[in-house]
Amino acid sequence: MEQIKVYLIRDYEKYADRISEKILPPTLQARWGGLLRKEKAAQIKMSWALKCFLTGRSGVELARDIAVNPYGKPYLPGEDLFFSITHAGPYMAGAAGPVELGLDLQTERRKNYPVEVLKAWDLVRDGLTPMEVWTAKEALLKCRGKGWREEAGKIRGLDVSHSLIIEGTCYYFGRLHTEEYSLCLCAKDRPFLLYPVLLPEKSEVGQEEIFGF
What we know:
With 213 residues, the chain is of the alpha+beta class. It contains eight helices and ten strands. It has a domain at 99-195: CATH 3.90.470.20. 32% of the residues lie in helices and 29% in strands.
């Protein structure tokens, strides 16, 4: 069975200053100075750096090659390389592979869900916490690439505790659940093993030691 690595960065904001702004596409570099809140700037910079890492491209190359579908999902036209990035709280995560995939991560800050939310989104499944079900449905939406507005009705009653078939296509799930977060990776047409990798391995590192470039 194929292995798909999921790269996790904890406290990603503190590493943002060590990432050169030259990694950003020219359009972002041109309007970078002082236009964004520090938190948002850190998110954008680390997200772009992680995309470069996952796709093996420089910032300029990625800006040239990347495209976005009508629903906002980024992809690389004409290539069998797919990627997905997610962030929540202090965490950012990314994965890439040869099949369409979607990744979602949520922090475990909220323990008490309103009853109406549990019922409306069908968040009670045998063996899964509500957060695990939620991340699985988000990952499924990201994998399909159409978003909540288009597909909320389709996924509301689905059992995402195992693989499932939608419109003739099979979707597989891999999960990682800790006391701090729930993470789910959804892949199209191919079962896989989820392999988590924590970045960086050291607490004091520069850009080269985080991503290898």
